[in-house]
Prior knowledge:
Gyrase A, domain 2; 8-stranded mixed beta sheet; BirA Bifunctional Protein, domain 2
Amino acid sequence: xxxxxxxxxxxxxxxxxxxxxxxxxxxxxxxxxxxxxxxxxxxxxxxxxxxxxxxxxxxxxxxxxxxxxxxxxxxxxxxxxxxxxxxxxxxxxxxxxxxxxxxxxxxxxxxxxxxxxxxxxxxxxxxxxxxxxxxxxxxxxxxxxxxxxxxxxxxxxxxxxxxxxxxxxxxxxxxxxxxxxxxxxxxxxxxxxxxxxxxxxxxxxxxxxxxxxxxxxxxxxxxxxxxxxxxxxxxxxxxxxxxxxxxxxxxxxxxxxxxxxxxxxxxxxxxxxxxxxxxxxxxxxxxxxxxxxxxxxxxxxxxxxxxxxxxxxxxxxxxxxxxxxxxxxxxxxxxxxxxxxxxxxxxxxxxxxxxxxxxxxxxxxxxxxxxxxxxxxxxxxxxxxxxxxxxxxxxxxxxxxxxxxxxxxxxxxxxxxxxxxxxxxxxxxxxxxxxxxxxxxxxxxxxxxxxxxxxxxxxxxxxxxxxxxxxxxxxxxxxxxxxxxxxxxxxxxxxxxxxxxxxxxxxxxxxxxxxxxxxxxxxxxxxxxxxxxxxxxxxxxxxxxxxxxxxxxxxxxxxxxxxxxxxxxxxxxxxxxxxxxx
Amino acid sequence: xxxxxxxxxxxxxxxxxxxxxxxxxxxxxxxxxxxxxxxxxxxxxxxxxxxxxxxxxxxxxxxxxxxxxxxxxxxxxxxxxxxxxxxxxxxxxxxxxxxxxxxxxxxxxxxxxxxxxxxxxxxxxxxxxxxxxxxxxxxxxxxxxxxxxxxxxxxxxxxxxxxxxxxxxxxxxxxxxxxxxxxxxxxxxxxxxxxxxxxxxxxxxxxxxxxxxxxxxxxxxxxxxxxxxxxxxxxxxxxxxxxxxxxxxxxxxxxxxxxxxxxxxxxxxxxxxxxxxxxxxxxxxxxxxxxxxxxxxxxxxxxxxxxxxxxxxxxxxxxxxxxxxxxxxxxxxxxxxxxxxxxxxxxxxxxxxxxxxxxxxxxxxxxxxxxxxxxxxxxxxxxxxxxxxxxxxxxxxxxxxxxxxxxxxxxxxxxxxxxxxxxxxxxxxxxxxxxxxxxxxxxxxxxxxxxxxxxxxxxxxxxxxxxxxxxxxxxxxxxxxxxxxxxxxxxxxxxxxxxxxxxxxxxxxxxxxxxxxxxxxxxxxxxxxxxxxxxxxxxxxxxxxxxxxxxxxxxxxxxxxxxxxxxxxxxxxxxxxxxxxx
Lengths: 582, 582
């Protein structure tokens, strides 16, 4: 038997008991007469002690211990003289009676402490050591708890978890698929699912009216910092529902998970905002509502006053940053640089400082009178002491840049605390997006999203104006879920494919199974999918999803720990009837 | 709103209420003055009625309804005159006040009833209709419940569910991998996991001492009737454990799941049997212990009596089938044919009938005296009225053939009832298996299984005799799980790879990440993996796993519903830098 207790559970009530613990040596402190060892496992740290009463043989073994050695210890639980209030086991220590070294360890390549000296690549290469660190371990345990809470809620609501296939069919619409050559069907390929979208819709046709699945999905994209080629969705679908049914079911889920895990109460119903309002007020379709600082349109007020930059532009807008009128030249230059970074790509930034004494200073004093500027301030609801930050240009680009600037200013002013949560449904998305490059419409969500009934007549006249029965759930500026009411009528689905540029034959070839299923009594249905990795990180107030994934890949899609992808054997290639192209 | 209730919940207490239901038209019976409709959803069937009080307009709509139309109905709950005790809603019917056809349906390609006229391929092609049938729907719902029960138990035992990657590295040991070409790393491939084996071991090194995952795994094998290229495992691992710890934890899990779902009580601990005993007594490493009929070794008794077939053979054994001495010539011929089928491949079958009156008749009367045969009967514990069935040949092959025959006779005698369960741990497996064809040892479980400590010295002298710390959980003749205590010592792992014919370089190349991890304090650990699909089907007493998988593939690895695998575009191939070989 390796242990009677874990390293996280012994306390004063155990004093006098003989116990056995196993774990890793976190630290050894040799104070001459006394040697202290911090023994660590998943559950905590317990102090072991060898002193003058410890046998010489045992002391000799203790003196050989190094960091990360795996040991088993038997001993008596003693009350500590120097209690450590910071840890649950801080009242006791174990007087070592017997010690077995289960395994030795080389010196780890980085320190296994809450703060580590290991860089990102090194931590990934030795991920099995990185996970021993409390922040990573806690992130994975948090993820487990979130998963359990999600399943508990959905099970109680009569949802059935159903696994859909991972070896499916490649469809060129959407992102790039990972494909899998089939040995048994030479020349043919499976694809890994980007989402179980069509399968969950088939399950609705099949009558399984409340489905969910926590499921791995795959996307062969050029990776950004926070994207992974494989990621996990909480995928859900319901039949016989309208948009409000889906929204209320899943705000219930999110509220229940936050309550279970963080003891945070969300007021139901969550706030809702149209896509247009989100863009106009926050320059984002996923606004962070932990703070205000809304964008105001200054186009009418600021145009036509002789300032060429403004006069020839589509849109002028700004935000009013509270109590920042005292920003220095250097700070303002920093903000200009911030918005000029390629990620934002703005040309410049106009400021107006509203001094405490009514003084107004701006970077456009030459073109606008103090009264002009006061008018702006008044329109923006700004007060003395505030700083107006103003940008101009193409409307959507400028709104988005202002949105980024708003987030940055919110961050600087501490208006985005990690333990505060602002959930929001964004609704009334456009159904379609026009792409200038390929000169065609794309589905804003996906081709199965239904249009608002009263907009269907616009398919011929003005497709861009069609609104979708689609909704995104946003928390603190992160999109954690998105979904829609689906098309369940075969003719409407054909109409949608047509506006996306599919011929009837192409639609049949790629989605024939779904179109065929719609012949046999498809019910009205809709659903949502949550990014599980993202949900976990947002709950912890953490930006990156990486530590919520046990074994993530780097930005080149590579697992640096196992060194994958890698070359395969000539025999494997031959069996698969494929050849590499040099 | 599409419904106030489901089609499974209305009963006498709802009489007088106005309700709205939505669902599928199961059946329409037009009795002239009255039209009855059975409306079906996932939850049940409710009877709707239109009669002389129903408006003409409404009756006209009702008369257009066909099978599998999707409708929404509003009406009053009435008490039925003819109650149907067979269904929970059988006391009531809905007087139709308002009916909306939500979607029409073509005539389905097979009848959607508990018993269907649809063949296997047709059912698979229209799986979304097949799932509407109660047996398939119930199988999927059962699977959901099993999954929930498993997670509940493991969570309560402090296990953490951790997702391991699906895009990993191809290793030639074991079955064939499915591989995934990497576009970002041309010429290189990921592999889909056959199991998360090495990752869960790394999680043990990482200190996550109780891990589980319900996870999709992949094997590119030539498919047998009941194999799928993708399948689901309940994958588990623990650190600081010995074999008994793993066994008791997971028999607890299985007992808890059977109790939760079937209300079946298993006595703990489960029976244990060595691999050798299982083979000798039941001719199988996964014996069905719902009944006895053990195999007895007759080699010493039956050899050397002048019957050439027996005299020149390695092994003679038999089973005693209770109360079958009255088997006819034809029945006995049938059994001979049964054992001669290619799946079993025996040469023949000897019978001895023990008549009620002490008469003995056998197919080998010429060679053996009645006293000889009585000696056999006595050795086999047979009684008057029993039928002895005896086979001879190579020992293991003959035992396996007798094992098959035993199962067949158990089946015929009704000794294998679907609602009776006999769990068993098979232990003391050999570590290695010699393969004549390739002239090398293979790991009986996998290369990470640890040898019994006291057998380690046999690595040099007699590897075949080394026993493994491995265990299989068998229920009713089906292996539902298997696992082992793992090697956690780097040197022993190298020794194991060596006996399997790996050079040190090959071991480093394929499993370097694991061998490297063993340098940094690997704890003792072990685990188990259950076949989730199989566990579900065994609980239901069903042989095939196929209906426990929502969208299974056929024996050619093809999804006939979506028609996958399929060819991909020239552009996709070009991006992946691969070419098809004609």
